[in-house]
Design a protein that fits this description.
The structure holds 3 protein chains of 3 kinds. Chain A is mainly α. Chain A contains 13 helices and no strands. Classes of the chains: A mainly alpha, B alpha+beta, C mainly alpha.
């Protein structure tokens, strides 16, 4: 095709490539701009009617009005993560390690809370456990929020743990430990767990971040005495000033971003993609 | 047929210079081989010709057309990749017809053409198979035929036989060599394997550290290497320090006639090949360090009086290997007619 | 003497083995109980509740018979499909960019793209409000330029605000889910296509796309199901403006206290998201969330 070869095209005018970069720049702007604006408003208040000087008063207001929610959310997240690990890691191990009837089905079921809309889980839980049942009365307590958060976050811990287990050749580790005379529990605690430690920590931090941001289930089971940070955000966005709401949002973003930076540092697993919004 | 000319091509990646001021011409219908150690810039040269790298400096011409700014898809360059790079989502036939299809060749025509080419390399019966079900050698042939199907101005082969076993390599080398001669397409063959380069190419360009050390026929680069690098890289050589003095070259332990070697006076390096020595009780005294019997020949490593070690090949018919022990003294003669002197 | 030495460890081993065999199962029991009591039971009760109507399957029939409900379901589909489409196209560009270009600060770009994945929906809504709302930067800026009221440009409390918000949380998920797949595409295959005369677009269409199709299917599944299920964002910016199914469930249950009707909608919503996700797993294997 000599004709086309003759038609010299200068790469400087490569519109396809320019378009490609433009789209990417637009996407990055779309993702970043709102976060910048939230931070900006948290120092300056709304841009309406001109800008004042930067101030920390919105942060003072946001913290003093929502300190309880911030603390409660962190407490809930800590407990959620601990329970996630205690009951999730052994379950993940059992699912990967043993053969049993309906094993595939059981593995599929573990991601169910990711597949079911949070609002449905919230409605279902409040309907079933909002009133005493089987002698258990957890309606309106912090415990019911924690249970909701565990349900929502434990699939992530299990997924990461299962993936890590698959990657470390746990069977050989286990066989060598057992051949040296260690029982199951000691093998599990001293050999298996240290080898999948990074995965567990990454999963735990993800779970912590997800619990901190969980809204859809909490929204149906919380009471005004047990307000979590996202619920407080929701209230703040509706009632507080733009500056204070932005300050509260900024606090939340900083918390989450800090946690996720740690995940990115310690694990290749990266951020899991599910989560209710 | 096309003559491809690189004119002072330089390519830098950031501060790294991959190739520096490369000028060479691949003549019409010729097979030119670029050979060199890994990282010498041979792949960059090939990718620049293909249009995947934009040269930092220099121009590329196909005949008298400047194609430096022409996009890869419009250069009409056939590329054969080291890993074959076949389209796994297409059958063999679809792979081969892909190029003509992009050029808008009618379906029947491109099919007939593809079948013809597949037949030429003896795999027309595999036309409807998935590439992943083929052997390495078969995949390589599909890759070759796919590149030829666009009737390229130049065919670029990038280490096309790496990963194939030695026997298959030899057979493919013969087949591809014949095919390229028959078709007469201008070909650039990039490889780190000097045997391949020598066997297949009309001319060889030795590349080192981003620049060309020597271009010439296989005979020239082997027998008259331009410098120590070429001498070392092409074939096995014994590099011996010597002093040139007018018509003679003094190796210390022996003196040879310079003859047509036309050395400059002073410090020079004498390039000898393992076959240049004969074990016939000649004037050079050496001691045996090691012997390897490798079938047709016996490779020997011996130490010369000046403590230089050289390797030489002798026929098992001449020498009974079992007679020789490390430390034995032997007498060699050097056939000066094949010796080459570089500065 | 010898017999005793042998017999004691044996008995211990036998007993130990029995405990050992059970231990993993015992330790997995809390997890099973959690799912049974707080997921299985509540869902079952919700399911049961959805059938408590005067006519057979009355609440289910109503979802399609009552205009408001039907529209909410259709609107949910419409927004999810639109946002999925937009996110996939933009996400493909971004994923290509991340997978293929080596540049300083790449890790930062990856971080910027992936952090919004963990933002709760209400936060995304607020992010949209400060950009597109009446006091947001864009309307303020446009008002400053045009001299008109900022309200003219405030689109956040509308269908388009909802689309922007949904795209905000879908796009990063979709992008990150496609990056590793594009990284795995053999670039020499693409170069082969280019050398054979295919343009970049043709190369993508005929060579790259077939290879990354499963990853795109996964991204579509993820985007669609997340959009269908999203609630927080909509609650803040679309309540009373755009009816979508999750908002309708909320209104019916919390506003009208009609648990049975809400339960039927919840079941329909669950069937949609669960079947999309498990349908993908069945067809392609692997997790949508990986």
């Amino acid at each position: 095709m000599p004709e086309s070869a003759n038609r010299s095209r200068f790469r400087d005018l490569d519109f396809g490539l320019i378009g490609f970069y433009l789209v990417c720049a637009a996407v990055l702007t779309f993702i970043m701009l709102p976060v910048f604006v939230v931070f900006f408003y948290s120092f300056f208040g709304s841009a309406v009617g001109g800008l004042g000087s930067p101030t920390l008063e919105f942060y003072e207001g946001a913290i003093s009005n929502n300190l309880d929610a911030i603390i409660l959310s962190i407490q809930i997240a800590v407990i959620t993560v601990i329970v996630d690990i205690i009951i999730g890691v052994p379950a993940a191990y059992t699912l990967v390690r043993y053969d049993f009837p309906f094993k595939r089905l059981a593995m599929e079921l573990t991601i169910l809370p990711m597949a079911i809309p949070g609002i449905v889980i919230g409605v279902a839980i409040v309907r079933s456990w909002g009133a005493p049942r089987f002698g258990i009365d957890i309606g309106g307590t912090v415990e019911i929020i924690i249970i909701g958060h565990i349900l929502f976050t434990i699939p992530f811990v299990i997924q990461v743990t299962m993936a890590t287990l698959e990657s470390v050749n746990y069977r050989r580790l286990e066989e060598s430990a057992r051949s040296l005379g260690a029982g199951w529990l000691r093998t599990f605690l001293y050999v298996i767990v240290p080898n999948i430690y990074n995965g567990i920590i990454a999963g735990a931090i993800m779970a912590f971040a997800l619990s901190l941001g969980e809204f859809n289930i909490s929204f149906f089971v919380y009471t005004p005495q047990n307000t979590t940070l996202p619920i407080a955000l929701f209230g703040g966005f509706r009632t507080a000033t733009v500056g204070e709401a932005s300050a509260l949002a900024s606090i939340f973003i900083l918390l989450i971003v800090g946690l996720l930076l740690i995940v990115q540092l310690i694990s290749d697993e990266g951020v899991k993609l599910g989560g209710n919004v | 047929m096309t003559e491809v000319t690189l004119d002072g091509i330089t390519k830098r990646f950031g501060t790294e210079t991959a190739i520096e001021d490369i000028s060479l011409t691949v003549r019409e219908g010729e097979v030119l081989s670029i050979v060199g150690p890994s990282g010498c810039g041979k792949s960059t040269t090939l990718r620049t010709i293909a249009g995947f790298e934009e040269p930092t400096e220099g121009r590329i011409h196909f005949d008298d057309r400047d194609v430096t700014d022409v996009r890869a898809e419009e250069r009409n360059v056939g590329l054969v990749f080291q890993n074959y790079a076949l389209f796994k989502n297409m059958t063999v036939l679809e792979n081969v017809t892909f190029g003509p299809r992009m050029q808008g060749v009618p379906k029947e025509e491109r099919r007939a053409k593809a079948m013809e080419l597949l037949e030429l390399v003896g795999i027309d019966d595999l036309a409807d198979r998935d590439p992943s079900s083929l052997s390495g050698g078969q995949q390589q042939r599909v890759g070759l035929v796919r590149a030829l199907a666009i009737e390229p101005e130049i065919l670029l082969l990038d280490e096309p036989m790496t990963g194939l076993d030695a026997k298959l390599k030899k057979r493919l080398r013969r087949e591809i060599g014949k095919l390229l001669t028959d078709i007469g397409v201008t070909t650039l063959y990039v490889t780190h394997d000097q045997t391949q380069a020598m066997a297949m190419a009309d001319r060889v360009a030795v590349l080192n550290d981003g620049h060309i050390e020597q271009i010439g026929t296989p005979e020239t680069v082997y027998e008259q290497p331009a410098n120590q690098f070429v001498a070392n890289f092409i074939g096995t050589s014994n590099l011996l320090p010597a002093t040139a003095n007018g018509s003679t070259v003094d190796l210390g332990f022996t003196t040879i006639e310079a003859g047509g070697l036309s050395p400059t006076n002073g410090e020079v390096t004498v390039v000898t090949r393992p076959d240049d020595f004969t074990l016939n009780g000649g004037p050079i005294e050496a001691s045996v360090l090691d012997t390897f019997y490798i079938g047709g020949t016996v490779q020997m490593v011996v130490e010369l009086p000046d403590e230089n070690q050289i390797s030489l090949n002798v026929s098992p018919k001449e020498v009974d290997v079992s007679d020789l022990e490390p430390g034995d003294r032997i007498n060699l003669s050097l056939d000066a007619s094949n010796v080459h002197v570089v500065n | 003497m010898i017999e005793r030495v042998i017999s004691i460890p044996e008995r211990v081993t036998v007993r130990g083995k029995r405990v050992d065999d059970l231990l993993p199962w015992l330790l997995s029991l809390p997890f099973a109980l959690l799912f049974l009591l707080f997921l299985g039971l509540p869902l079952y009760r919700l399911f049961e509740l959805s059938f408590q109507s005067e006519t057979f399957l009355g609440h289910y029939v109503n979802i399609f018979a009552v205009g408001r409900y039907r529209n909410a379901l259709f609107m949910s589909f419409a927004i999810s499909i639109l946002v999925t489409g937009v996110s996939i196209v933009l996400g493909l560009f971004m994923a290509y960019f991340i997978a293929r270009r080596e540049f300083v600060g790449k890790r930062l770009v990856v971080a910027i793209i992936s952090f919004p994945i963990s933002f709760p929906g209400v936060l995304v809504a607020w992010a949209m409000i400060v950009v597109l709302g009446r006091t947001g930067v864009l309307p303020q800026f446009l008002a400053f330029l045009s001299g008109e009221s900022a309200s003219t440009f405030a689109i956040v409390f509308s269908f388009w605000g909802l689309v922007a918000g949904y795209t905000y949380f879908t796009l990063p998920r979709v992008t990150m889910s496609m990056v590793s797949s594009i990284e795995k595409v053999d670039q020499s295959v693409e170069e082969a296509a280019r050398s054979l005369g295919a343009t970049r677009l043709q190369t993508f269409r005929y060579v790259t796309l077939p290879v990354i199709a499963p990853a795109i299917a996964s991204a579509v599944t993820l985007a669609f199901s997340v959009c269908m299920a999203a609630f927080g964002t909509a609650l803040l910016i679309a309540s009373g403006v755009v009816d979508i199914l999750p908002l309708m469930i909320f209104n019916v249950i919390m506003g009208q206290q009609d648990y049975a009707a809400g339960a039927a909608m919840a079941v329909v919503l669950t069937i949609i998201t669960v079947s999309v996700i498990y349908g993908y797993r069945r067809k392609f294997g692997g997790s949508v969330y990986a």
